[in-house]
């Protein structure tokens, strides 16, 4: 059962307040203040974990985010010289803040040192403000950087996750790969990246809830999870396939919309081909996780089985089947 201490509740509230201040501000200075409030609220949440590596991860995260915030401040004097140069520096700082390639180097080590729920916050909530800022800063020069960053993120997220045995690092490289699709959706319109981000948040939450409830941090622990619990196995199977974007699951829908926009509005065959190729690679290591928990079993392992600790981890992943109900909803509506 997930419980929040009073100080965690306070900092969670100020974290959300920082996001709301930043995305609703009409001034760059107020927006920067919202970013700093969000950062200074997340650091105590990271250090509240009993994990001995949480302080190291919190320090790494603070230094990287402080560098990004300092770059945004440093860009303001350049706006008097060249507005394009100022926009470029701010855009690079935002890419650093979300952990997009080639500025992704800090993301997997920070993820490895924090708990699962903090990792989920880092993968989803902490990206809202920088992504919304990037969607307002698209120009000709920043669009080229966005395309380059999206292609690199897709390749690094896919190839980097193939060699990992730690589940948090696998999810970190998965997040870098999904960041490539998010950058592609930002280049279209605001509605597109909102749809993709909400879908990614729901699907990744379903995966993290299973891994958190069973405290799975290493690939080998998948072999000793509750193999007799068929709903648990099916939940992990659905969640992993949905995260990989396999139809007809929920994770496929935003990718299909992005591909459709690529076909109708952009003439970027190399960009789309790279995204699709990386999606196949990520689906491979998702499949490896799902198959390990679904098929492998032995009598020795079955002796040490425990019941799942959270019913939410069993029910939430079945939201990935929601696209199957969409035709029924259309029939009811019409």
Distance between termini? 42 Å
Q: What is the molecular shape?
A: globular
Question: Based on helices, strands and strand pairing, what is the structural class?
Answer: mainly alpha
Instruction: Summarize the amount of helix as a percent range.
Output: over 70%
Summarize the structure in words.
It is found in: Mitochondrion inner membrane. Residues 25-282 form the NADH:quinone oxidoreductase/Mrp antiporter transmembrane domain. It comes from Typhlatya taina. It catalyses: a ubiquinone + NADH + 5 H(+)(in) = a ubiquinol + NAD(+) + 4 H(+)(out). One of its GO terms (molecular function) is NADH dehydrogenase (ubiquinone) activity. The chain has 334 residues and is mostly helical. The chain has one domain (6-333). Helix content is 73%, strand content 0%. It is built from 16 helices and no strands. The protein has helices at residues 6-24, 28-47, 54-81, 83-98, 107-112, 116-123, 128-136, 140-162, 167-186, 190-213, 230-244, 252-265, 269-295, 299-302, 312-315, 326-333. The chain is globular and about 60 Å long. Mean pLDDT is 84; it is low at 298-306.
